[in-house]
Specification:
Belongs to the HAD-like hydrolase superfamily. CbbY/CbbZ/Gph/YieH family. It catalyses: 2-phosphoglycolate + H2O = glycolate + phosphate. This is Phosphoglycolate phosphatase. Its cofactor is Mg(2+). This protein folds into 2 domains: about 150 residues, HAD superfamily/HAD-like (Rossmann fold); about 60 residues, Putative phosphatase, domain 2 (DNA polymerase, domain 1, Orthogonal Bundle), CATH 1.10.150.240. The chain has 9 helices and 9 strands. Strands 1, 4, 5, 6, 7, 8 and 9 form a 7-stranded mixed sheet that branches. The chain has a two-stranded antiparallel ribbon with strand order 2-3. The longest helix has 15 residues. The chain has about 220 residues and is an alpha/beta fold. Helix 8 links the parallel strand 6 and strand 7.
Length: about 220
């Protein structure tokens, strides 16, 4: 059975935490704030840029809503859109995507990262032509774990049997909410033990992914 395989991005296909960390420090040190550790920033990744910046502001006693917050968020998005120097693909990612495509799978991307930096990082790694549909965190009025972005990605891919691949609590919840099987990449940004996250299969290296997809029988979505 040929599947549509929909991926999360940050913590699943790319390790972008170093660039997110650097961008946050560029913005907040300019405001006179002490720098964040990577662990502080990474702990807020996963629910979109507005939530990330709001939590960073809150942790420093700065407004996390209103005009001042909006200016900080806009500056972060400006800095981060061009930040790819420290971001890397996880080992085996490109080969796994190409193998899935060669096997007849349609590939999609559903991320809470805003669409502009999403497309920029896909271009940076030469991956933009592998995905039949890309939904960013600002593509719809809602973000993951609401199922709408994931289901909209699948709709744009033509529907049919599908699997969602992600790394986090948000991704696991999104898959459950959408009624799709979930494959968990264990080396991303999750905070919860693997056994505590609902998933249909787990993998630590992308080399394993084509075999998992090939062996998986996913139910069709109406």
């Amino acid at each position: 059975m040929t599947h549509s395989v929909i991926f999360d991005l940050d913590g699943t296909l790319i390790d972008s935490a170093p660039d997110i960390h650097a961008s946050a420090n560029t913005v907040f040190t300019a405001l006179g704030q002490p720098p964040f550790t990577r662990a502080e920033v990474q702990g807020f990744v996963g629910r979109g840029a507005p939530n990330l910046v709001a939590r960073l502001c809150e942790s420093r006693g700065l407004p996390h809503e209103g005009p001042e917050f909006d200016r900080v968020l806009a500056r972060f998005l400006e800095v981060y859109e061009g930040a790819q120097a420290l971001t890397v693909l996880y080992p085996g990612t490109r080969a796994a995507l190409e193998a899935l495509q060669a096997a007849g799978c349609k590939l999609g991307l559903c991320t809470n990262k805003p669409l502009a930096p999403t497309l920029a990082v896909l271009r940076h790694f030469g991956l933009e032509n592998l995905f039949a549909a890309v939904i960013g965190g600002d593509s719809l009025p809602v973000k993951k774990p609401d199922p709408a972005p994931l289901l909209e990605t699948l709709t744009r891919m033509g529907g049919g049997p599908a699997i969602f691949v992600g790394d986090s609590e948000v991704d696991a919840e999104t898959a459950q909410n959408a009624g799709l099987p979930f494959l968990l990449f264990t080396e991303g940004y999750r905070k919860t033990p693997v056994e505590a996250l609902p998933h249909d299969a787990a993998f630590a290296h992308h080399d394993a992914l084509p075999g998992l997809v090939a062996a998986f029988s996913a139910p069709a979505v109406p």
